[in-house]
Amino acid sequence: MLTALTAFAITSAARLITGARALWLGCTPQPVQRLYFANHSSHGDFVLLWASLPGPLRQRTRPVAGADYWAKPGLRNFVIRKVFNGVLIDRQRSEVQANPLQPVLDALSGGDSLIFFPEGTRNLGDEPLLPFKSGLFHLAAANPDMEVVPVWIANLNRVMPKGRALPLPLLCTLSFGEPLQVQAAEDKHAFLERARQALLNLAPKEV
Hints:
The chain is α/β, with parallel strands linked by helices. The chain has helices spanning 2-18, 45-52, 55-58, 67-70, 75-83, 102-109, 135-142, 156-159, 188-200, and strands at 21-24, 34-38, 61-66, 87-89, 113-116, 147-154, 173-176. One of its GO terms (molecular function) is acyltransferase activity.
């Protein structure tokens, strides 16, 4: 009961503060397995994306997050594990031989959809996107039947800029693009560049 109430409170607050609108431009909210990949400028990105999905999709969609930030004891750990059922990855590579993407691969093999940030960390600079890490390619190549959907999150970094105690009343939009898949004989570099461009194509013109 506490978990459900917390999820409702967080998602309701996210939608209320941001006035979030989901724009399904290249696909529709179908109950199929997907890897939603998005730009990343705030710790609230996955909350807003998750909250923008219809209820039945949210039940099988899990955010991928860094264990170094979210796994610390306390409220963060409760929220990511119990409320959002997040998939935590070890970005610090504490076990040298371990595959940091293994928890993500396990979640996909179980049929879950995921929210993934291919930049690997928050983008706090002026560039619209940081270079993509290779993880997006490896996940897409290992799951060729899965839809890989670009999602541009607009304005969230402006709603709660660094150092501000109260949010600004700005409208956030989440633009869902056309699903991608790794093409025959397409290498890592080509796929990541195509995915990056697909995400940039969804950005507002001023970005």
